[in-house]
Amino acid sequence: MRPQETRGARFASPRFRFWRPDFGLGIAAILLLGTFALSGCTTTSEPPKYTGPVERVVVKKSQRKLQLVGGGQVMREYRVALGGSPVGHKYREGDQRTPEGSYVLNWRNPSSNFHKAIHISYPSERDRHVSRQLGYSPGGMIMIHGMPNYIRSESMRRQYVGRDWTQGCIAVQNHEMDEIWRMVRDGTPIEIIP
């Protein structure tokens, strides 16, 4: 047999028929395309951390807006839900009002029943004094928080958007709360205006 016939006969045998050069290139192309296709499916659990200074938080109740302010400008703005009776200052526990005035974001709860929560230092000494004069308890535990944890479906979550539903807290969507959580430090002043 001539050398050319031997080489051709080897690739024609059943044992070697799948190892032709064109077959190997096809497999490599499929693997490469699959890798690129799957790389777009990966996600990270946390967006990049924010390193800039949020100097204060401003809540405009009548506009239903929460603003993160730094360097003299609004850095982020979120639509918020307030207490079920949002007009006016909070004077007593259970009135479903969101307080108005200057406070501090002083501690946080990563295991809140409302995704995550950052506490607002209400009531101030002045709030306590006014409430006592009126014969009421001022209440407390006013927070900026996310959506209730028991809401699992997107259709239920949409029912909360665009309406006031809290007991006096300031609520945002969970992904917004995650961003606020990262950007705002404990001790940041918050001003809540009518």
TrEMBL record:
Record's keyword annotation contains tRNA-binding: no
Xref: PROSITE patterns: LD_TPASE
Domain spans labelled L,D-TPase catalytic: 55-193
Catalytic site: H145, C169
GO annotation (BP), single: regulation of cell shape
Pathway(s) annotated for this protein in UniProt: Cell wall biogenesis; peptidoglycan biosynthesis
Keywords for this protein: Cell shape, Cell wall biogenesis/degradation, Peptidoglycan synthesis, Transferase
Stored Pfam families: YkuD
An annotated Gene Ontology molecular function: transferase activity
InterPro entries, A to Z: LD_TPept_cat_dom, Transpep_catalytic_dom
Family: Belongs to the YkuD family.
Protein name stated in the entry: L,D-transpeptidase family protein
